[in-house]
Design brief:
Number of helices: 8
Shape: globular
CATH topology: Rossmann fold
Structural class: alpha/beta
CATH superfamily: P-loop containing nucleotide triphosphate hydrolases
Distance between the termini: 14 Å
Order of helices and strands: EHEHHEHHEHHEH
Strand order of the largest sheet: 2-3-1-4-5
Largest sheet: 5 strands, parallel
CATH architecture: 3-Layer(aba) Sandwich
Number of strands: 5
Helix content: 55-70%
Strand content: 5-15%
Oligomer: single chain
CATH class: Alpha Beta
């Protein structure tokens, strides 16, 4: 099973991924977590280039680099683990590209991004996508003291567009489970746990 977490920066993905991983481990379920971009030697090098090594980059170059890092992760790590029947959790996946580079950057047409995503993911689609929904204003307050990478410096208007993009994706895709992440982390996790248990039990029958 492939589980992905999505949402704007500051939505609480890291906390909830850690919570879910601990829960799955307590149930003796084998789970592996990867972040995007990253997860392989090549993908981590691309991550540094994308987020830390330069402040200027053409939006299409950015889009293609994210896709290249994703392709390497999927073919080298994700597909082999899924073929062994293991659970894989991804901190971001191709929906981030649609939301950030599509709606946020307006880099190319959304349909073209969907096509590129199919290539980069080798047609690997998540079983569940937890979308941690939060307003950019609240997210910004949560991260105001953090050291920001290149994407996080994009500004409030950018994150408004990204949030709108995620909202549209959530309406169009049944695999999306929208969680209000402005609440206390433990309350958020109880919703995630309940949704996972329901989906996992239905697949185990």
């Amino acid at each position: 099973m492939l589980i992905t977490f999505e949402g704007i920066d500051g939505c609480g993905k890291t906390t909830q991924i850690n919570n879910l991983t601990e829960y799955l481990n307590s149930r003796n379920l084998q789970v592996t977590v990867f972040r995007e971009p990253g997860g392989t030697s090549l993908s981590e090098k691309i991550r540094d280039l994308l987020l830390h090594e330069t402040d200027e980059m053409d939006f299409r170059t950015e889009l293609l680099l994210f896709s290249a890092a994703r392709s390497q992760l999927v073919v080298e790590k994700v597909i082999p683990l899924l073929n062994k029947g293991e659970l894989v959790i991804l901190d971001r996946y191709y929906d981030s590209t649609v939301a950030y580079q599509g709606y946020g950057r307006n880099s190319i047409q959304i349909d073209h991004i969907h096509f590129l995503n199919k290539l980069a993911t080798h047609n690997t689609v998540p079983d569940i996508t937890f979308y941690l929904s939060i307003s950019p204003e609240i997210a910004s307050k949560r991260t105001q003291n953090n050291q920001k990478d290149r994407m996080e410096k994009a500004g409030m208007a950018f994150f408004e567009r990204v949030k709108n993009g995620y909202d549209l994706l959530a309406k169009k895709n049944e695999r999306f489970i929208t969680i209000d992440s402005a609440r206390e982390p433990e309350t958020v996790f109880q919703d995630i746990k309940a949704a996972f248990d329901s989906e996992f039990s239905s697949r185990s029958r």
